[in-house]
Amino acid sequence: MFMSRSEYDSGAKTFSPEGRLFQVEYAMEAIKLGTTAIGLKAVDGIVLAVEKPSASTLVIPTSTQKIEKISTHIGAAMSGMTADARSLVDRARIEAQNHYFTYDEPIKVRTLSQSISRMTLAFSDETSSNKYGSMSRPFGVAMLIGGIDGDVPKLYQLDPSGTFIEFKARSIGSAGASAETMFTDFYKDDITVKECLVEVFKILKQTIKSLTKDNVEVAIINKEKGYHMLSKDELNEYISNTKFI
Fold first, then answer.
1. Alpha carbon of 154 to those of 104, 224, 239: distances in Å?
2. Is 0.85 topped by the overall pTM?
3. Do residues 11 and 125 touch, judged by C-beta distance below 8 A?
């Protein structure tokens, strides 16, 4: 006796006869409705940028951050369901701290990305005994994880399927596809963080209706300063000084 489509839809771990996990596919679709997030790898660091939706003036800005610090040398930009992203960020921070206390060294970006990807697969219809606990559904969020391994910048994308892939440049979210088409116009292997910042603000200007210091977040990760979130004044300076085409 065959299961109906609705039964395949509701089972987070149930493959359809065509070999599809519908719940994971739905989670991937949710990301396409999320805010645009951009990650660029330069020779001297990583640039992360995220569109920040307009919110009430009564909302405290730090409570709606789309870029989060994982460790002194790693940051994460997110697109999709914020609550899911915060859950993964909290677990990633614990993973990074545990690694440092155990091995007396900073966790590598790939190691952390792999660890988070395992967390995204900890969904089940039953109570799970793994150390991450379990979710009744896949996480509805994708993340760009950027950081420095020694002297080498690294950038990874994670998605609800548990896949993590290393990129030179990547964009996710509602305008992710259009932003990526712009990468080919300027990206080169020896691009610097300063050059990336100029191009990022050009892209944001074209993907955000009215770009201001209040509707965007940008972070830089490099060897000298580690993780650094641009202040409102720094954002204003880049926005006013960047010539848009």
1. 21, 15, 26
2. yes
3. yes
pLDDT at position 1, please?
Answer: 40
Among 74, 65, 236, smallest CA distance to 155 is for 74
Reading the block at residue 202, the tokens are 């050009």
Structure tokens at 226: 């580690």
The type of residue at 226 is G
**Alpha helices for the chain (secondary structure H):** 5-10, 22-32, 82-103, 109-120, 176-186, 193-207, 232-241
Question: Shortest CA distance to 92 belongs to which of 31, 167, 12, 146?
Answer: 146
Tokens of 198: 């100029």
Query: Exposed (0-12), middle (13-18) or buried (19+): which is 137, by Cβ within 10 Å?
Result: middle
Give the separation between CA 154 and CA 103, rounded to whole angstroms: 21
- Residue pLDDT, tens place only, 97-136: 999 999 999 999 999 999 999 888 776 545 444 555 556 6
Domain 5-241 sits in CATH at: 3.60.20.10
**Average predicted confidence (pLDDT) for the chain:** 86
Query: Beta strands 45-51 and 37-42: pairing type?
Result: antiparallel
71 membership: H or E segment, kind and range = strand 67-71
